[in-house]
Amino acid sequence: MSVPVTTQDLAPQASTGGNFEKFAWIFMRLSGAALLVLVIVHVYVNLVAGDGVHKVDFAFVAGKWASTFWQVWDFAILWLAVLHGTNGVRVIIADYSSRSVVRFWLTMLICSAAVLMLIAGTLTIFTFDPCPTGRTSGHLPSFCPAP
């Protein structure tokens, strides 16, 4: 005996999870576009406009991060890249893990790693001392006082 299938049975079910997935999808598109601009400018300033990769050293980074503008620029790259990547891995975990317990713990693991990276990166950017004591003047930016 077969049960007849109605059009109501074939209709998509309403989501009870709110709009999180919609906002996550929009975030991926916007953050991807923003990251494209941020990273291209970052690479251009660090490698093309300067003297190339061989001149990127402590003094170069210290000189750059002495400016609040570049700190905020690199902060934006850090946060957008980590959140964009974490959301992408979260979607992959949701697509490929068949057991809800595994999905939960993998998502917790990736979110914990993201939080640690955001904390470490943010602290590095905003607590960076461009003129540390105990360094020779040849390794410091030109604006630092001589040791």
From TrEMBL:
GO cellular component, one term: membrane
Principal location class: membrane
Database matches in Gene3D superfamilies: Fumarate reductase/succinate dehydrogenase, transmembrane subunit
Cellular localization per UniProt: Membrane
Keywords, alphabetical: Heme, Iron, Membrane, Metal-binding, Transmembrane, Transmembrane helix
Any one Pfam family match given in the protein's UniProt record, by short name: Sdh_cyt
Gene Ontology MF annotations: metal ion binding
Keyword Iron-sulfur listed: no
InterPro entries membership: SQR/QFR_C/D, SuccDH_FuR_B_TM-su
Transmembrane spans: 23-45, 65-83, 104-128
The protein's name in its UniProt record: Succinate dehydrogenase hydrophobic membrane anchor protein
